[in-house]
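Worked example (supplementary).
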Amino acid sequence: MSYKKKDKLYFHQSFLLIVIYKMMTGLTYLPSLNIPPANQDVWIMLLVSIPYTMIYSLPLLFLSNKFCNYDFLESAELIMGKRLGKIIGIYYSLFFLTNLIFFSGGFIEILDASLYDETPTIVNTLILLFTCAYLVNKGIMNLVRLTELTIPFIIILFFILALLGIDNYDFQTFLPILSDSKFGEINKGALLTTIGYIDILILRMLTTYLDDKSKINRLFVSSLIFSTVMIILSVLVVQATLGIEYAKRVNFPYYTFTRLITIGETQGFDLLYVVAWIIGNVIKASGYLYFTTIALGKVTNKKNQVFIIPVALIATIAIVYIKDNRPILAVRDPYQQMIHVFAFIGVLVIPLMALIVYFFRRDKIKSTINSKEQ
Amino acid sequence: MKKKIMVLIFYMIAVISLTGCFDANELDELGISLILGFDVVEDKLLITAEVVDPQYSSSSSDTGEGSTVKYVQGIGNTVFEAFRDITLKFDRRIYAAHNKVLIFGEELARSGLITHIDQLFRDREQRESAFMLIAKGARAYEVMGVNSGLETVPANYILDLIKNINNNPKSIDTNIISYMQHYYHEGHHPIVGVIEKKRKNVIDKTSEDKGSEEYELSIIGSAIFRKDKLIGYLNGNDTKAVNYLLNNIENGIITFPIFNSSEEKVQSEGLPTNVSSVNVIKGKTKNDIEINGDKVILKTKINIRAALGELIAKTDVSNEEDIRRLEDACSKTVEVNIESAVKKVQQEYGTDIFGFGMAFHHKYPKQWEKIKENWDEIFKDAEFQIEVKTSIIRTGLINKPTI
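After joint prediction of all chains, the assembly is encoded as:
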């Protein structure tokens, strides 16, 4: 096993680790603003995406409950057989690695654009990935403890910034409600949002560590609702401050929103946001790095620590190569499409296939599990 | 042991190579600009920056020698190029993060702002909260450098003038972000503040400094835009009316005539009598639209809460009836002024700067889709109805007038 048996995650720890994934997307480039209907009804589209996401995540959620003592890759081997299980393991290794590269690349791009425009990409990348490598080197508990300490601070800060920006809000922006959007547009947007949802994979990777495995469904539903509400709040404050159209043109809308907060003569509240944002992103990137090495460890039957530095180096080279050739966030395709296809296969297609096979082979799988446990 | 040594070597390399910050901004290498002026000169963009002079100290201030700021100019095909042009004439890099005001020359504003100021949105140093002003009938650099206030820094003088909208809403305080909101709004064209250099009466004959002291800046009025092109100006009273319609009234006075009887009139010669001034404590406006057959009616309801500031009439404010008469007279004046401003904008410019298009969109979203391209034409011919209700809630330290 690449994780220690004593590593146990409590509900609130897992909850915070999961919600930070979606929340940081909102606090970074808020893609929902440009997803259909891309107008004042975006918040409704996000609400509609909640039931879609629940349905979309059902196969993986079912497997998480059924195989809660086995991580996803172990359960894939149990269900699909050793060879296919290994192939699935390689797929998820690549999936998490791709996410690590493009997410970190986006993070570095924002740092370049908004804070350190003269710092070479490689310096920012090395600092980020070696911090992440150090964090995950001793297992998931380091990461979880950092999460437990910092994410509540980020969440509280999020609400404080929303309150501080109240003078800039124009609530007329949100009118008329549901008049400019077609039913199809809202559903299309909700589906696109759903396809970008990968938090269920994070939950699946964490299930073996969970202290109380009976709360998997509760953890999934509560983290999904909470993170969606946080994204909705981000959308509302950004649109109310920047207006619908200008918000769509801004690369880092939440950052621009914080730049506009002024109390009397005092400005510079964006500094608070940047601190929270960097911490959140380091945790998110560390998670991707950790899950990549865990998947590689399962495929090769080695400890995940062996892969931490090599994966961090591969990611560094890839980020520097991509970033020094083109922007990631402004020109999102084809990277964004690639990530979406990867996510769709990883969250729905593979788990659905595993589920179908499980129903055909469930007696055999049960006996294998029983013999393993005896 | 070998691993620990490797880690130690790595950290030592990191510590040595990361001690300096690539993006360090040393204060003695920056030229902190507080106001930027933008003009078109011979088909090129001319930028004028008011830069704080760090040499100016409190002792210089006491002796009245020197200036707190210096002015530098750069020219180029783009804003970015013009900024870099400054570096060939001025020893410090212009640092724009403290910009408070952006002044645009009239010629540039007439040719279209958004096309030329992309850099102000793209560059992280620029602040979206900076106020915008149009140099009425002048170039931006012509109005810069005038300081007839008590502030030692001219930028702060201009900034304070803009903030005085809280006392007198005859001007507009549009910043970049609110300009952009209106620029993209369908049915609400932007309106921006103006700035003018005016000769003033020299009262202090003892002053030897006759430089900028003969001039003062005035920000009365506003500039009307159709999308990003300047198309005209409004005077102070019309701008005040616009502020009422935009629900942008926090303070300010209303002066109105009072007629106790049909015979009484405001004196046509000499100082007026039978007039009163109230100070607005709170104003609340609601714009609405009604469609009556083919006719579009623009409707506005304004509630004003005010304090009596001055009364030059034989009116007893301890009398309920007299208070009502004052309130009605005040409401009537506001109605007439706003009606006149709306009519002027409809007839002269045909551009909806009041946001009635947005009210139409909110109330009739389906019809809006069909008419939004022609909204300005519809606005031009629309009927305007206004209802103002004034409540005088304070009467000051005396009740009966002194006359």
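Two points are worth noting when inspecting this output. Chain B has two domains: 27-203+211-234, 236-403. The two ends of chain B are 99 Å apart (CA to CA).
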